[in-house]
Known about the structure:
The protein is 36% helix and 11% strand. It has 10 helices and 5 strands. It is elongated and about 140 Å long.
Amino acid sequence: MSGIRRDRNIKLPKRSDSSQTTGRIYTPSRPAEGRTIIPKKVEPKAKPKDSGARQNKSSRPQNKSSRPQNNRRTSNRSSGNQRDQKPRTAKPTPLDDEVWARVIEHDVSNNVVIVIGESKMLMGRFKPKSPSDALIPGQRVYIGIDKEKRTELSEMIGMARLDRLSTSATKDLPLAIQSFITDNENYFLKSFFNPAGYLSLKQHAYELLQGIGNKKASQMVEQRGSSGFSSVQNLNESCSIDANELLAKRFLSEIQDRNLQPRLTDLLLPVKA
């Protein structure tokens, strides 16, 4: 045979072979229906142990959460933490370098005294040594480092805020500041009222005080002259003002507004003897 059939090596059945084959119908076997049941293995029952062992098992807690913790480990950890902890040290406050202060309020019911420092005009809360003896607003008290000199106050509780003062303390705050200025009026006369000059071409330092304008400041400069005021009383009589009260109001406004410039509290404090 030649041609394409010979190249592919295709074998064709002979007529005699095809005639001998009989038509046979293939019927596949029916698949198994359902799942084959596998018999379970029956394990032999464990022999019962002694009654004492059963009692011990029943007494033990089944849940892990109900098991008691190891007291030795917890005690060692707690003791170790206590050893590692350092003693707490008091945090520094702006009143640590203050020596003297003025009483603003003595709250007998809460056993707290609110004071204002003389050098920075910052307020703090202290415990009084004798709660029964009420301190007067404006009274000078020692708050320095030497605790033996603290006859009125003991330890410091913390800083005091202006917006958390009581109504009576808010009213007594200007009086406490004015009592401080009155006790040091000669210092403020020499450091402010006599040497005060012009801050700019149009503004004098006297105009920082409440109620004094440009015209009033010019009159005060004329009354002062070249020699200056001899005393605060001379200043008040010649200018018809209360110098200590006006300066106390200026200090109070600077305490209420920390952004107010220029600040006389920064220029004049602390008081130098």
